[in-house]
Design goal:
It is built from five helices and no strands. The chain is mainly alpha-helical and about 120 residues long. It has a single domain, classed as Ribosomal protein L20, C-terminal domain (c-terminal domain of poly(a) binding protein, Orthogonal Bundle). The mean pLDDT is about 95.
């Protein structure tokens, strides 16, 4: 039976692992065992982070909308309630973008909601 040399396959496996941990701090980027452990944690936290990103984005949109409606003597919650009552279906992402980049258009949305 011929001898099987696995050196190249094992080396590729290690290189792939270390490539994924590039940029990690201390020995977790260069030592195989530490890198493997760090990667297990990093992958699970990346999943969680993608969920958290959505939460923080929505919070930021709410803050931007609130800041834009305050000069009109409205609060965020009252503004959203008025929009729902008037059946104006603009989501928070769009409203925040309008408030930040197109203040004139946002004022028209407020006028439409109030009238």
């Amino acid at each position: 039976m011929p001898r099987v040399k696995r050196g190249t396959i094992a080396h590729k496996k290690r290189e792939k692992l270390l490539k994924l941990t590039k940029g990690f701090r201390w020995g977790r980027k260069s030592k195989e065992r530490a890198a493997k452990e760090a990667l297990l944690h990093a992958l699970s936290r990346a999943f969680r982070g993608r969920k958290e990103k959505k939460r923080t984005a929505r919070t930021l949109w709410n803050v931007k909308i609130n800041a834009a409606v305050r000069p009109e003597n409205l609060s965020y919650s009252k503004f959203i309630a008025i929009l729902k009552k008037k059946n104006i279906k603009l989501d928070r992402k769009i409203l925040a973008d309008l408030a930040e980049h197109e203040p004139e258009v946002f004022k028209k949305v407020i006028e439409k909601a109030i009238s």
